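Readers of this paper often ask what the protein records in our data store actually look like. Such a record has a labelled line for the sequence and another for the backbone structure tokens. Nothing more is needed to write down the fold, since each code stands for a local backbone conformation. The remainder of this section carries one protein's record, kept here as part of the documentation.
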Amino acid sequence: MNEGVVVGVDIGGTKVLAGVVDDEGRVSHTALRTTPGRRVVTSRVEDALVEAIVEAAGGESLVGVGVAAAGFVDSAGERVMFAPHLPWQGEPLKDLLEGRLGCPVGLDNDANCAARAEARYGAARGAGSALMVTMGTGIGGAVLLDGRVVRGANGMAGEFGHMQVVPDGQPCECGRRGCWEQYSSGNALVRNARALMVEQPSVLNDMTDGNPEQITGPMVTSAAEQGDLVAHRAFASVGHWLGVGVANLVAALDPEVVVIGGGVSSAGDRLLEPARDALRRTLVGAEHRRIPGVVAAELGPRAGMIGAALLVS
């Protein structure tokens, strides 16, 4: 007799992705909804979550639901304190969903959930300590020590993207300057390519009819795959700064492995090789220690959903 299913759900700025996750981390019966946005009443966001969860469950009873949220989750795992692309501010999401779904609900930050998934089933499998760095529009991350996610006093550990790496550097959306994600992220990749394409010929000119403002991250990746020098230089810069930031984290936490996830990580060694080189050159005491591997995440865009399910299974 089927005793029910566990559903993991990942909610970010653009979409809600839910799926049934089994004990081996395999995902089935996924459901997708569009995120309502940040200028709506919060109940509309919860409606989208519940609809995706119920559709994914496909009529089966719910054993539990785990939610990976793109935002700050409190240390108790009960409230989303702030989400840059959603209307939540101190939203008691765990209680609200438990009331609507009638089952236990687990809640955490999306990067923490991705790290749990990579530690159980992916690139950090078997490591006692690991760092997860997620590279998308900005940078997020998570810390795993002794096999457990370190959430911090406020539940906000792992916000690596807002470490300052360049004093008085590029302005950041957070209101400060010189944050790491301004030099190593999807946005940084596009900004680099826009600046470089006016200096030398590039296939990006053909892709955008010569308008740098039309450049997107996937365009830069496509250009790099065609051997375009501008795209390669853009990735080299982002990779270099990735390594510089990782060196700071390794100096502080000394992990066994550093896992790079998020959309930008799909570039593979084009991004990771300059990062590894910068890590070797800038890490304090590099010649006297084992430098951790810098590896690509293995679970792709489903990592958050899989890790969320681990909160209740």
